[in-house]
Design brief:
By secondary structure, this protein is an alpha/beta fold. It has 19 helices and 14 strands. Bound molecules: 5'-O-[(L-methionyl)-sulphamoyl]adenosine. The site of 5'-O-[(L-methionyl)-sulphamoyl]adenosine has 18 residues, from helix 1, helix 7 and strand 11.
């Protein structure tokens, strides 16, 4: 078994500035990459932009630009955002890259030659913003079932992919690979809503516009954006190219992360394309819900849009990453509201985490001149209970993150933080100091630093700067003491000296003021 980890995000439609919701997938993918890297795996994270199609052509025209000029600017903007959000991607693929276009053309010819693609006539309804064809029965009140907008009548010569041929094979695959779709309820949705009613063959070329990859053997056709876009996961790794080292090393992906709106493309079409190409399927496709606003979707007209930069500038990157990951349940949408954001900041980050570190560092200074007591036998009555509960939270974190239950796994870390805060109250170090119980005091302070060290290790993939700040303040400088494989042990913290002047990592915010501030920003956006 290769010890590699390949994680992908969907490639983004470069149709404007990315709002906070769109950043979710990529922050999550980046955190999973960092976590697996810390587990010693060789990791690869792919992201990029999905630059073809009628929609992009139209937006570019509206902006008075030619499509290439437009997508160049947009790709640059996306890269800038990922830099601001400290996303450590390994490759940024653009579907206008020659390396991608060339292989898409080859794949098309291959599928045509083997009979999976055939030429026919398309007549039906098309949603331009979603770049999707629909049958009459799929429409809701005559409108696009995905975005609710008007659809247009379309008739043109097209190539089709024979989806029906693969339907049974796909169902069998779902059945035999319970980890393929996460969470599980998305599988039921696919089966009941799309596969059981009968998979329609998919129209995969267009002739009425030209901003796309042309079909080699019939150049008046351009490849449908979804076939083009999905193949990025392979072309980025050099599939069918002269150098396919990365492809051999990383494919099949461990996890491909997608939002619920594009689940169908990744859970039905994508596996079928892979089957047709005789390639293994990704181990898991993780479908997440959406970050919504209290009044529904984010939109400029509602005046409820918030951009990641708005929040990062004022509250720092880690607070934003934490909020996004913590606020999205597995089975429901996550809600962004100024109130919820400030509450998480003040309670989880400031009261729970920052205060724990701050109180502890000042006690080490006060009672031991900054030198952390060494590990000895547990002497406080409540040590055993504390340790076994703390261990349970760490185990539950590991189990949940393995199952990609991100918000719940962060919740386990915060349970551990609360439990460690409770340990301060239980041992009451100030009382021990007053009563001259030196041994018990040493034991209590040792445990606090040791569990803060573990907490910093656990949050590293999600909030790197905060973790490093904690390590620095509690005097953990040895990289071995920052490693995940030390989570199970209690280390002997010899020569560990905390900072002489602790600084709060997160300062309490004036809630009313900040909520007002955010509301104004949202109106102005
Ligand atoms: N270009 C396609 C993907 C092609 S993949 C071969 C696309 N792009 S997108 O820019 O519209 O969306 C990118 C990702 O952001 C998708 O996973 C989408 O679900 C996600 N999100 C868009 N809005 C979102 C929220 N409000 N909340 C969470 N994720 C959201 O789809």
């Amino acid at each position: 078994m290769k010890d590699t980890f390949y994680v992908t995000t969907p490639i983004y439609y470069p149709s404007g500035k990315f709002h906070i919701g769109t950043a979710y997938t990529t922050v999550l993918a980046d955190s999973l990459k960092k976590l697996n890297q810390l587990k010693g795996k060789d990791c690869y994270l792919l992201t990029g932009t999905d630059e073809h199609g009628q929609k992009i052509q139209q937006i570019a025209e509206k902006n008075g630009k030619n499509p290439q000029e437009y997508v160049d600017e947009m790709a640059q903007m996306a890269k800038q955002l990922w830099k601001t959000m400290e996303i450590e991607y390994d490759d940024f693929i653009r579907t206008t890259d020659k390396r991608h276009e060339k292989i898409v053309q080859q794949v098309f010819e291959k599928l045509l030659a083997q009979g999976d693609i055939y030429k026919g006539k398309y007549k039906g309804k098309y949603c331009v913003p979603c770049e999707t064809f629909f049958t009459d029965t799929q429409l809701i009140d005559g409108k696009c079932p995905d975005c609710g907008r008007d659809v247009v009548e379309m008739e043109e010569e097209s190539y089709f992919f024979n989806m029906q041929k693969y339907a049974d094979r796909l169902l069998k695959y779902y059945d035999e690979h319970p980890d393929f779709i996460k969470p599980d309820y998305r599988k039921t949705e696919m089966i009941n809503n799309f596969i059981k009613p009968g998979l329609e063959d998919l129209c995969i070329t267009r002739t009425t516009f030209n901003w796309g990859i042309s079909v080699l053997s019939d150049p008046k056709h351009v490849v449908y954006v979804w076939l083009d876009a999905l193949l990025n996961y392979l072309t980025a790794l050099g599939y069918l190219s002269e150098d396919d080292t990365l492809f051999k090393k990383y494919w099949p992906a461990n996890v491909q992360i997608v939002g619920k709106d594009i689940a169908r493309f990744h859970l039905i079409y994508w596996p079928i394309f892979l089957m047709a190409l005789d390639l293994p399927l990704p181990k898991t496709v993780l479908v997440h819900n959406w970050i919504m606003m209290k009044d529904g979707k984010m939109s400029k007209s509602k005046g409820n849009v918030i951009y990641p930069e708005n929040l990062i500038e004022r509250y720092g990157l880690d607070a934003v990453r934490y909020f996004l990951l913590r606020e999205m349940p597995v089975s429901q949408d996550g809600i962004f509201s100024p109130e919820a954001f400030i509450e998480r900041y003040n309670f989880d980050l400031c009261n729970d985490l920052s205060n724990l570190v701050n109180r502890t560092v000042s006690m080490v200074n006060k009672y031991f001149e900054g030198k952390v007591p060494r590990h000895k036998e547990n002497v406080n009555d409540i040590d055993e209970t504390f340790e076994s509960e703390a261990k349970k939270y760490i185990e539950q974190f590991e189990a949940k993150i393995e199952n990609f239950e991100i918000a719940d796994s962060l919740k386990e870390i915060w349970q551990l933080i609360s439990r460690t805060n409770k340990y301060i109250d239980e041992t009451a170090p100030w009382k021990l100091a007053k009563e001259g119980e030196t041994e018990k005091l040493e034991d209590s302070i040792y445990h606090l630093i040791e569990y803060i060290r573990k907490i910093a290790i656990l949050i590293t993939p999600f909030m790197k700067d905060t973790a490093n700040n904690i390590f620095r303040q509690i005097g953990i400088t040895d990289s071995k003491q920052k490693m995940r494989d030390t989570l199970k042990d209690n280390l002997d913290l010899k020569d560990v000296q905390v900072t002489s002047k602790g600084e709060p990592i997160f300062m309490r915010l004036q809630a009313d003021e900040e909520i007002e501030y955010l509301k104004n920003i949202m109106k102005a956006n």
